[in-house]
Write a structure and sequence with these properties.
11% helix, Lipocalin, disordered N terminus, 157 residues, eight-stranded antiparallel β-barrel
């Protein structure tokens, strides 16, 4: 499975991610819909560094209809020393691409996607982002060949 397809140019990532700063809990602001988060609200992703250097990923959400909490625990590892391209798995041995495309210098928000353009998330350390930040991120999407109209806005209570 290759990282690029014929219809998309290579996806650039940030030059360096400090995993110590990146770890912790992120709130999902928006996502491209996919089966494993369909019907979810209050979505968070928490990253913890394991003793073996890999990253424990804990995704949590609340089912909108039943109000039941769901949790998935996975593992991630960096493919190079930039730490901007991660491989993440919740269903080993299958790993997906989790590429950090934009990251606030103070690690307040992140734009994360996959090189095939099927997945995209806006993440924040808080439950909301301001309009200026949203506009800044949206302005980057056309050049990256992501369609902003595909976003599902996450309910965060």
């Amino acid at each position: 499975m290759g990282c690029n397809s014929d219809k998309h140019p290579p996806l650039e990532t940030v030059s360096k991610v400090d995993i110590e700063q990146y770890k912790g809990t992120w709130y999902e602001i928006a996502r491209f819909e996919h089966i494993f988060e369909e019907g979810c609200k209050n979505v968070t992703a928490t990253y913890e560094i394991r003793d073996d250097g890999k990253i424990k990923v804990i995704n949590r959400c609340t089912d909108i209809k039943s109000n039941k909490q769901k949790e998935a625990v996975g593992v991630a590892y960096s493919v190079d020393d930039t730490n901007s391209k991660l491989k993440v798995s919740f269903f080993r041995p299958f790993y997906g691409d989790y590429w950090i495309i934009d990251l606030d210098k103070e690690y307040k928000y992140a734009l994360v996607g996959s090189p095939d353009r099927k997945y995209l998330w806006i993440l924040s350390r808080t439950k909301t982002i301001d309009e200026k930040t949203k506009a800044k991120l949206f302005a980057k999407l056309p050049a990256l060949q992501f369609d902003k109209d595909k976003f599902v806005w996450t309910i965060q209570e």
